[in-house]
Amino acid sequence: MTAAIWQKLRGSSLTERALRSSLITVSGFMGSQVIRLASNLILTRILFPEAFGVMAMVSVFLMGLTMFSDVGIGPAIMQSKRGDDRDFLDTAWTIQIIRGFCLFAVAAIMAWPMSLYYGEPDLVYYLPVAALTMIILGFNPTRLQSAHRHMMAGRITMIDIATQMVGIVTAVALALIYQSVWALVISGLLSAMAQVYFLDRFLPGERNRIRLERPAANELINFGKWVFLSTICGFAIGQADKVVIGAYLSTGDFGVYNIGFFLASFPVMMASVVAHRVVIPIYRENPPAESRANYLHLRKMRLAATAALMVLVTLLVVGGDWLVSVMYDPRYQAAGGIVVLMALVQIPALIAITYDLAALAIGDSRSFFVLAATRAVFVIAGLVIGLDMYGLPGALIGQGIAMILSYPVVIWLARKPGAWDPVHDAIMAIYGIILALFAVWLHSDVLAELLLFQAG
User: Fold this and answer.
1) Which distant-in-sequence residues (6+ apart) come within 8 Å of 361 by Cβ?
2) HEC states along the chain?
3) pLDDT tens for residues 173-207?
4) Whole-number pLDDT of residue 2
5) Which of 88-92, 273-277, 444-448 has the lowest mean pLDDT?
6) What are the two backbone dihedrals, phi and then psi, of residue 431, each rounded to the nearest 5 degrees?
7) If you compute the radius of gyration of the chain from its CA atoms, what whole number of angstroms results?
């Protein structure tokens, strides 16, 4: 049996490559999260909750800039017929560099208005310095996307972990010295430099050069215009909570919220990492609409993957409050209820995690945008209405309801590449409902405490 498993991991078929890439990616992600958790525990004992709140403001702003300017270079390389062409890759790299400088300029201009919005004057200094990472990461070689295209996960995973170690070691060292948010800002810059160096030094292939080939640029722009709009919506889906809740809570409570978010987001983050590295190649090489065998094969893979994610969600729902009480000091104990509730509201998103990428695999970035826009509208509405009616727990529940309301559009999108699987979705939805009812019974007191989080 061991020999058979080893053979599967060494094979060259699509299934074997996908399995190998997924296992390596998951292993790397879990190792990365263990390292991240260890550093988080250390930093929460060195720094104060407000520091994490301020850094969350910096992070959400930079994430917004990144997503508001994403032209889909990664997905374009992964799905394009020219994805291995030298001129195409160099054109993508050149566009990426130009984008990095533009993002830095926007960050410098927006620093003062953002400091007024959040009521944190020091953001005027933190944001422009942190935004230097946009310039640095613009020089990431396209060999990274090429490795994703061919599901070569091993070396990328090692580079990711090495990059993370640089950021964590420098963050802890600087925090001990300066006891300031600057420790987190500067460590982010050093981590970005390390990533560019490691990717350039250890990924195989030719180095990029500055080039703008018109046909390549046209293909990237035509594909990327819908991805660009989709990532704007993606920002609303993934980061609107931090924008709205960050202004609603005090800086200290916002820091506690982000501790809870850090722990609860583990399943959805892992699912997203694996999906973006594996799903597009799978759907590109093994389209479900092509045959019933392909469809059933993909169903089997999705059932196994989603079941594993549900196990992680269950562990967080059952033990999230206990986990926070064991790992963090009393200043962060309110994060326990946040972990439990956030883990539950992510279930609808986890059930449909691969459908949008199935559309990108067939080059349908327009439908990808329609789904993202629908989700964004519902998420913002759920967040604002829920926050107004029931405070922080209402905002979190509103986001979960938003994902449920957008499901009809998910079906519409998934049917185009023949990927919709109602059996899979129904099984996981029933389990999610049962888990939610159990959580309310088990953690009624912990969830009720979230109502104490008031505007700060």
Assistant:
1) 79, 279, 280, 281, 282, 283, 284, 287, 417
2) CHHHHHHHHHCCCHHHHHHHHHHHHHHHHHHHHHHHHHHHHHHHHHCCHHHHHHHHHHHHHHHHHHHHCCCCHHHHHHHCCCCCCHHHHHHHHHHHHHHHHHHHHHHHHHHHHHHHHHCCCCHHHHHHHHCHHHHHHCCCCCHHHHHHHCCCHHHHHHHHHHHHHHHHHHHHHHHHHHCCCHHHHHHHHHHHHHHHHHHHHHCCCCCCCCCCCHHHHHHHHHHHHHHHHHHHHHHHHHHHHHHHHHHHCCHHHHHHHHHHHHHHCHHHHHHHHHHHHHHHHHHHHCCHHHCHHHHHHHHHHHHHHHHHHHHHHHHHHHHHHHHHHHHCCHHHCCHHHHHHHHHHHCHHHHHCCCHHHHHHHCCCHHHHHHHHHHHHHHHHHHHHHHHHHHHHHHHHHHHHHHHHHCHHHHHHHHHCCCCCCHHHHHHHHHHHHHHHHHHHHHCHHHHHHHHHCCCC
3) 888 888 888 888 898 899 999 999 998 888 888 88
4) 44
5) 273-277
6) -60, -40
7) 22
Side-chain-facing half-sphere of 302: CA atoms under 13 Å: 27
Whether the Cβ atoms of residue 273 and residue 25 lie closer than 8 Å to each other? yes
d(CA 217, CA 80): 13
- Tens digit of pLDDT for each residue in 8-27? 445 555 556 656 666 676 67
Which amino acid belongs to residue 441? W
What b/e sequence results for 113-123 when a residue is b if at least 16 CB atoms lie within 10 Å of its CB, and e otherwise? Answer: ebbeebebeeb
Tens digits of per-residue pLDDT, 207-225? 888 988 888 888 777 776 6
Nearest to 311 by CA among 421, 427, 431: 431
Question: What percent of the chain clears pLDDT 90, i.e. is strictly above it?
Answer: 16
Name the average pLDDT for the chain.
81
Question: What burial letters (b/e) apply to 316-326, b meaning 16+ CB within 10 Å?
Answer: bbbebbebbee
Report the pLDDT value the prediction gives residue 15, as an integer from 0 to 100: 56
Q: Where are the domains of the chain?
A: 2-452
Backbone angles phi, psi at 333, to 5 degrees: -65, -30
Q: Which of 266, 271, 304, 317 is nearest to 433 (CA)?
A: 317
Dist. CA 418–CA 8, nearest whole Å: 27
334 φ/ψ angles, rounded to the nearest 5 degrees = -65, -15
